[in-house]
Amino acid sequence: MARFIFTRILLFIIAVCGWALVGFGTMIAGRGVFLYAMDPVLMGTGGGLAIGGLLVVAQTLAARVQVVTAETTAAILARLDAQAKATVSALHRNTGLRATPRQTRD
Prior knowledge:
- The chain is built from 2 helices and no strands.
- The protein is mainly alpha-helical.
- The chain starts with a helix and ends in an 11-residue tail after the last helix.
């Protein structure tokens, strides 16, 4: 459970930082466009930061999908394992099969 909470908090913090980077880059690019008469340095810097922030957000979403997939797969495997154990014990109980061989004299 602690890993679940830690992963969620960490991914949330990274996503917030990515969105902040997008906002900061947009602000710098906007200043370059509107306040400094289309200054290419400010527009390029702000645009680069905004694109970098979008990449951080996209990678965070992909990481979240991977975490959810891993947790779902683990839950499915645990359920299948429990179901298989129940099925095997029911087969042994119903058919009289034993795990150890019996020695009989013929």
